[in-house]
Amino acid sequence: MTGDNPAKNETEPKPGSRPGRDDERRVPTDEELDATPPLPLVVWAARFSSYFLALGGIMLVSYAVYGFDTDPKSFPPGFRLNPLQAVVDFAWGLAGTLIGFFRPRHATTFVLAFAAFFTVVAGFGTFEGSALGMELGTSAKVFYWVVVVFAWAAGLIALVKQSDAR
User: Fold this and answer.
1) Looking at the chain, which terminus has fewer C-beta neighbours within 10 angstroms, N or C?
2) What's the CA gap between 95 and 10, in Å, rounded?
3) How many structural domains is the chain composed of?
4) In terms of C-beta distances under 8 Å and separation of at least 24 residues, what long-range contacts does 100-106 make, across chains too?
5) How high is the pLDDT of residue 37?
6) What per-residue string of b and e applies to 34-53 under the rule 16 or more CB within 10 Å gives b?
7) Would you tell me how many other CB atoms lie within 10 Å of the CB of residue 154?
8) Do the domain assignments include residue 86?
9) Residue 92 to residue 133: CA distance in whole angstroms
10) CB 74 within 8 A of CB 121
């Protein structure tokens, strides 16, 4: 240690070397975890759309195996979606799952858009008999109305909380 060169710190990793065990993030304590605020309801609502991802995916695989001309009534209750309805559910489920788990700051926008879209689907399905080319059975109509009520509630609660925070 002479001149302008300071002594090397033994704890600094060498260039190109992998970090050691001491360089990893430490595990938070129970007290720190208890102090962490819970995720907002709207994020959980976006994550709930993973149900639509699973349902749409299962039905798309079923149609790929049995053929897209298969009568939806040949499937068990809860799985009687036509192919278009399966694609729509899969797409909304994929978007909501990605947002809910990886981009939660966009959850309010997603949940409100989800609620608006499925309000249109449930409304047309209930009052017109067909929603954007999707023939909805009675159980699907009831299910969509229940989902729409919860989606609007979660989205609007989050929107009000965001506007109060500003």
Assistant:
1) C
2) 47
3) 1
4) 100/43, 100/44, 100/45, 100/46, 100/47, 100/48, 100/49, 100/50, 101/47, 104/39, 104/40, 104/43, 104/46
5) 79
6) eeeeeebbbbebbbbbbebb
7) 24
8) yes
9) 17
10) no
Token pair 């260039």: residue: 15
Size of the chain, expressed as the number of residues it contains: 166
- Domain containing residue 75: 41-165
pLDDT tens, 74-94? 888 888 888 988 999 999 999
Q: Is residue 31 part of a domain?
A: no
Give percent above pLDDT 70 in the chain.
83
Domain membership of residue 128 (yes or no) is yes
Q: What pTM value is reported for the model?
A: 0.75
* Per-residue pLDDT band at 23 (split at 50, 70, 90): low
> Does residue 57 form part of some domain?
yes
In a 10 Å sphere around its CB, with 0-12 CB exposed, 13-18 middle and 19+ buried, how is residue 87 labelled? middle
Bridge partners for 135 per DSSP: 130
pLDDT at 53: 96
- Per-residue pLDDT, 128: 77
SS3 (DSSP) at 131: strand
> Torsion-angle region of residue 87: left (phi > 0), alpha (psi -120 to 50) or beta?
alpha
